[in-house]
Amino acid sequence: MTDSNRQGRWTRRELLRWAGAGAAAGSLAPWAQGQTFPDKPVKMIVPYPPGGGADSWARTVATRLEKALGQPVVFDYKPGGSTTIGADAAARSPADGHTLFMMDSTAFAYVPNMRKVNYDPIKSFAPVGLLGVGPMLLVANPALPVRNVQELIAYARANPGKVTIASAGVGSPHHLIGEFFRSRAGISLTHVPYKGAVQYIADLIGGQVDLAVSTITPALPHLQAGRLRPLGVSSITRSSALPDVPTIAEQGLAGFDEKPWTCFVTPAGVPPAVLEKLRAAYRTTIEDPEVASTLRKAGIEEVGAWTPARIGEQMQADLTKWGEVIRKANIRLEG
User: Using one digit for the tens of pLDDT, what is the confidence trace for 61-110?
Assistant: First the structure.
């Protein structure tokens, strides 16, 4: 088994033997690597197109992270494949701490339960830190003659299959939360997948689609300008970014509470000293008052609240939970 596919599982004896072999070959021991890290720019892989909510969050983090690391953060956008193109690239990157992947439930819990992927959703990555938990928003084009969830349900029942709902792609949180809403409400909606927020927001404003399940960030300026209409928030409690918008649960679907979460990971197998230095830099970044405030204003809750260990546990729990849900709903992806 090579160093790159050990997934970070080392005994103390193996670590000492590996370090000794490295020294004999003229390479740096892990603790020495920790002293020199980072010695080049850090690549941040974002699995969505530029300009959307994920891009905005990533840039908020990157600006402060550059100061903490003393190296530039270079963006590498890899949209498509329901985020698995980015996940594949991250898993295959060198395990030296110079790659960060912005990972959400799509890559580690949803898509691996819908089709075969080229990475292990748990073992291929090491958690670095939580970005936060983000409630989603059910939002409509103002031309759709509904102003709340109950009116939407009544309209959809009177017009079965005619109401279209956009998402950031098949298997995305937008898609699955929209599917859960459709199922709980007992209505028929026609799903229209896009590659990211920029594309579906533009078509939603233009009237090419009627509804979307969206992250709050890309929708917010259009809500404020009246170009889009908010119908309900997906979490059990209201969003601090939109305190006047009622939750879906408040509007008749009791207990509706879906809050996707996003974290940063690095390829598994990064030397422990390097990984801890990367995690420390991320903690400094996410605890910065300006960074935390910006993310909260964008609708992100629990900013940086989980430890890496908690992230790993939640990944495994969500992989199991969503596997059961997706199999029951018989949702499949080709490829």
Answer: 999 999 999 999 999 999 988 899 999 999 999 999 999 999 998 899 99
Topology of the domain comprising 3-132+261-329: D-Maltodextrin-Binding Protein; domain 2 (3.40.190)
What's the burial of 325, exposed, middle or buried (CB within 10 Å: 0-12/13-18/19+)?
middle
Q: What is the pLDDT of residues 1-17, one digit of tens each?
A: 333 334 344 444 443 44
Residue in the structure block whose two tokens are 């809403």: 181
The structural architecture, per CATH, of the domain 136-251 is 3-Layer(aba) Sandwich (3.40)
Tokens 């005619």 locate to 162
